[in-house]
BTB/POZ domain-containing protein FBL11 isoform X4
Amino acid sequence: MKDLEATGVHHTIFVRKLFCESCFDSISIHWDMESLLSMLRFLFGCSLDLTSENFLPLYEAALFFGVEKLLLVCRSWLNYVISEGRIWPPPLHLEDLIHIWEYGRENATDFIPQLTDCLARNFIWMTSCDSFHNVPFELLLSCVKHPCLTVDSEKHLCDSILLWLAANTIPYDLLNSTGDARLEIFTEIRTSLLSLPFAAGKRRCPLFSKFAERSVDAILSLATSSSFSLANILGGGDFSQLRIRLTECTKILDLSGCPQISLPLLLLSMLPFSYSVDTMLTKKLNQLPLKLERFNMDVSRIPWETFPVLTFEAVEVVDVSNCPMLHLEAAIECFSKSFPSLTTLKAAYTSNFRTMKLYQLLQRCPLLSNIDLTVESNPVIPAKVSVISSFPVVKLQISTSSNEETCPAVPTFHFSRRLSNITNLILEGRTDIYDSDLHNIAECCPSLCCINLNVCTSITDSGISVILLKCVGLHSIFACDTFFAHNCVLSLCRDISRFDGVAMKMEKNTNSLAYKLQILHIGGCKAISEITLLELISQLYRVRSLCLRETQLDDNSLYKFSGSSLEMLDVSDTKVSCHAVGHVVRRSPHLKCLIARGCRHLLKEESNILENSPALSYNCPVLYYELGKSCNLEEISLGWGFSFFSLEALRPAIKMLRTFIVGLGGSLGEDGLKLVPTFCPWLETLILYFQVISDSVVRNILETLKNLQVLALCYCFGEISSLSFQFSAPCLRKLKLERVTAQMTNDDLLTLAQNCMNITELSLLGCRRLNSESQDTISNGWPGLISLHLEDCGEVTAKGVTSLMNCQALEDLLLRHNGLGIDKNFIIRAASRMPLLRKVALDVCDAKDGDFDLPDFTDRRFLSIVKIARCNLKRRTLDSMKSGPCTTPVHAETLILTWDSEKLSRTVVKERL
């Protein structure tokens, strides 16, 4: 009855409004004939088919004529299509929902709350729609303020708001943003929970700069504080700004790049909002960080029942990559209680997580199917470096207090068949994983389909082969730069018919794991002999992605390839010829990526063709002709033998190219480089080594390639000036200029920062006219940098490193031969100021006191790799012996310190790493 009474009220208001707004005694009302007929048919008992197109006309007609039954049907239909239980995206387009919301707001209907609730719960879907910029500000604000607002992260929310404001604000207002009242919506963003690289990068955003400054200060305050007291937060005041957004509809929780996230902060977000903390619980919360410093403690002994965490059934994906303050082993306990449906855990660059705890992770979260535990790859790869000396391994020291009971050793884990849900396991770069771990993984993960062991240098050929023997469902193997060799190949090529009943019915050569493989990456595995490699390749029939770089691969092996599904092929730095690669290309019509840099035999083959048939070589080189005839490439990387004529032959295949790399031995010439933007208008990555360049070439690239995100010009012939970077390149994210801008000045660098303001990775080599003032340009121009390499850049560090410390989101920092002025304690100071810093590379030549202090386990914070190079000074010529002391530094050795979850390793190598 109340609904009917409300309908009558709305009907009366609607009619009165029509007459009050008219200056005549009567008005003419024109209804859409189709909707009017539909309403009349409904009144006489006919069925009604409601759609997004006829909902509003029918609702308006029902409201005007007072057809309460039709109004109820319309409301029921709308409630159904926007209900929480519906599968999204909904049958209504965002434009339809906007029109319905605007109509309801204008006519004071009662479905406004349901619409707002619906869009708040599906905010990510709403922001992905092309018409998002048409959302009224009042509706956007209502969604952002709604308690059911569901986003993956605060970063996603902030980006969406900035996108909307940019589309709905005139340029003048962008420059005078303080006068726009709509900017108050930023106060709804929990800026303390933004990722550090994102917040730092937004300091140059006119709309968000002040909020970004506050955000960075808050993040650093939380990330660098020695203790985090929940009592101060829960004891009084508003702590809602520190609660991670978790709702009943949350499916993805993305906390990546947030150094401020700690276990207490995570627990705070999982507790009921109105939960009152008693004295005893407060004491236990404050003790958590101190207890977790004892790396060998059993986190299951923490009284988790004391914390009444909520359950979020919908959460399936959690990303805590680059969260150095989060104790992952303890966080897993929280995930197991609050996220029972968790299937994917991304925890890349969490170096303090011990691999031995992987089994406990599987036990706590039995539904997990995807795990990413990637860490920074150890640069000391045996096949690539010459080790001069290796210091004894320093084991991680476990601190235990005398007044606390000693924790027992970690109990042996008993495998269970119920732990068979893991299908995708990424352990890339982990040096704390051994053959015994692979044995255990093979036992408890029988359903494993994809494993990534790239640069796991502590495992052997025998250990990897165990995984291949026992996990017969494997279809993707990543084992680059490991000891993958003869035993592994035997395991891949073995007859598995006794494991697979279906395979027994097939031909003999199809009964191997190699035959079923879809991805095989074994680049850098030089221990595989040519004969063994030939046997392996002959059985790779279904493979889609194949990486064989830096192996013993030759033509005999490549000619044995008989597959036809190949999409990616990497044969860089091998002995293959263009004819052998062409053989593979002819068999691979779906090839999208070809990487063949460093293949000197490609040049030799083309030279032979040139001698025998110059017309063929110039007009249609064999390999490039095959590529142009049959492929639609997205990525190509070539060197020896690649020329202007090769580019012409490739033209049909590279019109949708995204990545283009030309290396040593390739020669496009200036004319060829000017054609690249025309031939490849969708390029996102362009990397050139040893090419002839000029200002006109670079200007043409930046002006034409609007989607370019990565540009690298390395050791090219000819120099470029500031004229090259006078065009705005807002999409550019990574820029590498090595030995191509020797005359770059501080003013030129400022021009670059003004026109390429969104760069996050910058590498400058050989810019000898730069001085210490350039530090201000870099830190102010690119505050969101995550990677910075400066080498042989004049006097950048001659007065020390000051302004660069303001690049607080840095993860990778290299400073070499930039001036004798870096303090002895620089590494420790940088680690404390930059909470995400993982890699540091320096040179003793720049040490003000002749050396650097090496961090211990506490001082290193998040550091995992420190490289310190040392040079010897030599005379340039015999004549210089008469004129004075030697002046030319020549590299002698590099000291490399690497940390993993259990040890510190120190190695001295000949290479300059």
Notes: Residues 2-20 form the longest helix (19 residues). The mean pLDDT is 84.
